[in-house]
Amino acid sequence: MLQETKFQSFTVAADPRQGPPRLAALRARLRAQGLDGFIIPRADEFQGEYVPARSERLSWLTGFTGSAGACVAMLDRAAVFVDGRYTVQVVEQVDTTAFAIESLIDNPPHKWLEANLQAGMRFGFDPWMHAVTAAEQLDAAAKAAGAELVAVTSNPLDEAWDDQPAAPLGAVTAHAIEYAGEDSASKRTRIAAAIASQGAAAAIISMPESIAWLLNVRGADVPHTPFPLSYAVLDKDGHVTWFIDRRKLTPGIEAWIGNAVTIQAFDQLGAHLDGLGHAKTKVLADPSTVSYWMYQRLNQAGAKIIRAADPISLPKACKNPTELQGFRNAHQRDGVAITRFLHWLDQEAPHGSVDEIHACRKLEAFRLDNGALKDLSFDTISASGPNAALPHYRVSATSNRKLGKDEIFLVDSGGQYLDGTTDITRTVIIGTPTAEMRDRFTRVLRGHIALALARFPDGTAGVHLDALARAPLWDGGFDFDHGTGHGVGSYLSVHEGPQNISKRMIAVPLKPGMVCSNEPGYYKQGQYGIRIENLIAVTAPTDIPGGERSMMSFETLTYAPIDRRLIAVEMLTAQERSWLNAYHARVLDVIGPHLDGNVRAWAAAACAPL
Fold first, then answer.
1. pLDDT digits (tens, 9 = 90+) for 325-377
2. Cα–Cα distance for residue pair 310/4, rounded to 1 Å
3. Most buried of the four, 164, 242, 450, 515, by CB within 10 Å?
């Protein structure tokens, strides 16, 4: 039977055995270039989390397939760096005799280099693959060790990769105003004004999602993420120079974007930056997203660089009323699919016939039934028993296992729709939970509810709210090693900045219209994992009776039952019980009319008041 789905493959090409011979091939290229080492990031030339096959350099070299990480390859040693989400996965995928495993958080590459480089060494990096701030960290580390950081002109890993795939040519299409809610001319005018207000004559836009939002276009260069890989320069008069392969443009796109956008080939970018520099132009560049190559090209040509945040990032994150309504509509149809899937799972899994891949295929089929699905928003995490203890587990034909009796099953999934992007996690029990499972699930649920109920003043950042979701776990001596929430794009990336909700000291305030995830979890290695995730939108400030300041809050956008069988009701406060009952009533109200017969009856029981 065919194992793949329309949007997800269960074949993992990476293999730990590939590491040593490919590392040897890379080292040969390093010697040829006179280098003592080289760094391989997970990101590509566009600093993206999700990258095309051509840019899967970290996976090609090491076998590690996670969405965050890096590798440092020296002539005599090598290390792979991952965060807490991947500590188990990395040792399964990487040959640890060839690569040491290091913490991306506690001992990131620049710290490791400072301790491991020796005076006189020449350490290489690809200036296209690193943002300015990252490159500056590497340079400081090299100098501290008495070594030299060398920007290569030819990537030695690409030289070693004989069958590297070609660059993607995904079709670029228009994103209609009925979904965008604002035309591109209006966006360009207000972003250009913001650029001018900072004293700049132009801004480098290097994040493809920012360009897709600005021009109201979408693409197909990156798995599950509908943006075209491209760069742009936005002038303070609203004119855009867009650097993209013309072969991607579908008929009518040039008319759609209009005469105020000039299209040029990628190989013309350098000359354009030189022109800005020679004119002594004041250029805004975000050092956390603009590549070191572009920054240095501008600097060497004489541009006056203003280091500031991507001027599109924040406006893009604050969804307009049309986009928010689109999110609600997308989550309604997605909730129907999820609820149909949960009903099916409840009927079939107890018989022992369902495995993780089967569950993926069935869930995608339910989403496809709504007729509006364009893609998944990421590979579905379908994880049973011990696999659920891996927060970013990806099922493959070799890891696939049956959903066992009295085991927890975790499914984290999402859909891409023209009117919105969804991301939802549900954790269910197949059979009867243990008292420990119910305790941990209820702690996670209480944290989820605490964040959903939060009221907060203007100026509050996600880092200020993160502890609300962790407190019930902390009370029992538990925690989780991932963020509580990430931003979500409007038919764009499922992981969107600049806001998030996590322990990381990101001081970007939450603003009305921002959409975030609410996903606390708990993971017991080798046994089970729990996560409850809804998407939430930041609301405008409102007055509280008797209060002195207006407060923002969250609107929950996701509609699907939360497994009542895993809840230790006695652990809930009256307010928490009230929230869950109200949430389930809302789920029935929103999706109930779109469910048929037995599914609707099952949903009514699953959403019954506690």
1. 999 999 999 999 999 999 999 999 999 999 999 999 999 999 999 999 999 99
2. 38
3. 515
Cα–Cα distances in Å, from 358 out to 349, 403, 563? 10, 10, 21
Dig out the tokens for 257 from the structure.
């974007």
What's the topology of domain 16-160? Creatine Amidinohydrolase; Chain A, domain 1 (3.40.350)
The sign of the CA dihedral 239, 243, 249, 251 is positive
pLDDT band of 66, cuts 50, 70, 90: confident
> Could you please report the per-residue DSSP string of 461-479?
BHHHHHHHHHHHHHHTT--
Which residue type, as a one-letter code, is found at position 311?
P
Over the stretch 372-404, which tens digit does the pLDDT of each residue have? 999 999 999 999 999 999 998 999 998 999 999
Tell me if domain 16-160 and domain 173-316 are identical in fold: yes
User: Domain 318-606 falls in which CATH fold?
Assistant: Creatine Amidinohydrolase (3.90.230)
Concatenating the DSSP letter of every residue in 108-134 gives -HHHHHHHH--TT-EEEE-TTSSBHHH
Query: What are φ and ψ of residue 439, in 5° steps?
Result: -60, -50
The answer to whether residue 262 scores a pLDDT higher than 70 is: yes
Q: Out of 3.40.350.10, 3.90.76.10, 3.40.50.10090, 3.30.1490.190, select the CATH number for domain 173-316.
A: 3.40.350.10
Instruction: From residue 24, give the alpha-carbon distance in Å to each of 28, 56, 87, 113, 160.
Output: 6, 18, 25, 20, 9
pTM here?
0.95
| Number of CB atoms found within 10 A of residue 350's CB | 13
Q: How far apart are CA 574 and CA 526, in angstroms?
A: 34
In this structure, is the dihedral angle defined by the CA atoms of residues 174, 177, 183 and 187, taken in order, positive or negative?
A: negative
Alpha helix segments (H runs only) across 453-536: 462-475
* Strand arrangement, sheet containing 534-538: 496-501, 485-487, 515-518, 534-538, 554-556
What ranges do the domains of the chain cover?
16-160, 173-316, 318-606
Q: What pLDDT sits at residue 4?
A: 65
